[in-house]
Amino acid sequence: MAALLSKPLPRRLLIALLASLLVHLWVTGDIDFSTAPEPITPPPIEARLSGSALAPNRLAPVHKPVRPRTGQAGASTRDKPLSAPNAELALPIAPSAVSASAQGPAMAAEPAAPSAAEALPEAFKIRFRVQGNEGGLLLGQLDHVWQRTGERYSLVGVAKASGVFALFYSGLLSQTSSGAITSAGLRPESYWMQRSRKSYSANFDWERKSARLGGPYGALTLAPGAQDYLSVVYQLALFPHPAEGRVWVIDGKRAKEYAYREIGPETIELPLGKVETLHLRIGQGNEEADMDLWLRAQAPHLPLKMTLVDDKGRSGVLLAETVD
Fold first, then answer.
1. CATH for the 123-323 domain, from 2.50.20, 2.60.40, 3.40.50, 3.40.1000
2. What is the distance between the alpha carbons of residues 308 and 195, in angstroms, rounded to a whole number?
3. Could you read off the pLDDT of 115-143 as tens digits, one per residue?
């Protein structure tokens, strides 16, 4: 019997014994299969985020601007757009950087300032009455004719004797001057003068800085801004200049340096009537070859009166009669 119990029970026999036991307990009422045990409710789980979990990622947050409420006075700061910390301020874009399509319709460009030549009249003619002196005997008339073509100019001065002087002189004085117009003023290239039966000329070579005189007078060195005896009047008349200065003048025989200075505004009486002028004086500091100019106060500042003293001390007065 003991040997029999020491051997392990077969698997089928063990299952049969367990089934028999369960049936016995159910019959006796020791086990109730009618009710199942109530499920156990697990306790609630409380989750808490630590400080590290609140930290945002490394990307900069994007803030959407909040539009202020219309009709609400004194909007609070939270109604204002927020900007990210350390964000760069938006700078205005220069107009040149904006594309043409973004600018809309093209605006008309401001007109360019006129050049020195374009600011000058294209043509005018001044007729002067020539007198021996102030209120003196009428000697004749002198015409100054100006022509401008682009950046080129030409000046012609023709004096004719009248009355008894016409019996002795076919012309008191004739002059021509031509050249270029630059930002600094007139730049003569050719000058010619005839006085009685004598003539004088000068050809200006600005590249070589020399002037070739006619006849036996040879060549001269050109000083910057040099003028001839006719162009100097209109250089001072038509172009801005200091109140005082110096200028070299070539008359066909020689070059002389003249000083000029403004005397001041004056009202003078002319055959045209009373005129407001600016009085200038040009010369060598004495009466010899001095010349006084009265320029019209309004632009263009044309010469309206001149007094001349030649190298022999003879004087003449030129008074504008007409300006065309």
1. 2.50.20
2. 15
3. 889 999 999 999 999 988 777 788 889 99
